[in-house]
Amino acid sequence: MGTALAQSIPFNDCKEATLVVIGDGSFFICLRELASLKSSQRLLILVINNKGYLAIRHTQAQFLERRFVGTFYDQSSQLPSIKPVVESFGFKYLPIVSIADLERIDLNDIDRVTIAEAFCNPEQPPMRHTPIVKIGSGS
Ligand SMILES: Cc1ncc(C[n+]2csc(CCOP(=O)(O)OP(=O)(O)O)c2C)c(N)n1
After folding, report:
1. 3-119: CATH, from 3.40.50.970, 3.30.360.10, 3.20.20.140, 3.30.420.150
2. Domain coordinates of the chain in residue numbers?
3. How many C-beta atoms lie closer than 10 Å to residue 116's C-beta?
4. pLDDT at residue 13 tops 90
5. What pTM, to 2 d.p., does this model score?
6. Beta strands in the chain (DSSP E)
7. Which positions ≥6 away from 128 have C-beta within 8 Å?
8. Relative to the CA of 25, which ligand 1 atom is closest?
9. Is the CB of 107 under 6 A from ligand 1?
10. What is the pLDDT of residues 25-83, one digit of tens each?
11. d(CA 74, CA 66)
12. Interval between CA 4 and ligand 1 midpoint (Å)
């Protein structure tokens, strides 16, 4: 979780732009790695903002009867805003609020570290759903 930022370091002088995709919870857990990317050039980091930890919310919904602990996006577990953090590191910030915004990005135009924040549905259902079979239910 969060290793995508550290794994981007070797791509600091690639001729072609590198696309890195990371969740917002993961982004904040490894935030200090942004300092290691200062000398990187053609890097587009796409942060999926679904108000954090969606995979864990799904687990808690499916297996823990929706008892959300440390993952629900109320005041207590809210993540900080990404834009000021990105700008404080001197990187370019791009908000993505629609598919059209995403399609407008041309990797050929990425000439320095750019962090795009894609605002996504915090209730997005999992793409694949494994049916829950209760042990001893007889079915
Ligand atoms: C170091 C580490 N800690 C905990 C986990 C367990 N884990 C798997 S996914 C996840 C949540 C990731 O949240 P986020 O980056 O916001 O991505 P999302 O689930 O919203 O797509 C966690 C805590 C992990 N994979 N690695």
Report:
1. 3.40.50.970
2. 3-119
3. 22
4. no
5. 0.89
6. 18-23, 43-49, 92-96, 114-119
7. none
8. 16
9. no
10. 999 999 999 999 998 889 999 999 999 999 999 999 999 999 998 888 776 668 999 99
11. 14
12. 12
Q: For residue 55, which atom of ligand 1 is closest to its CA?
A: 19
The answer to whether the CB of 114 is under 6 A from ligand 1 is no
Token duo for residue 110: 């990425």
- CA-CA distances (angstroms) from residue 80 to 19, 34, 48, 86, 106? 23, 16, 14, 11, 28
Torsional sign, CA 98, 100, 103, 106: negative
Residue nearest to atom 5 of ligand 1 (CA): 1
CA of 23 to the centre of ligand 1 (A): 8
Residue 98 amino acid letter: S
Ligand 1: atom nearest CA of 50 is 20
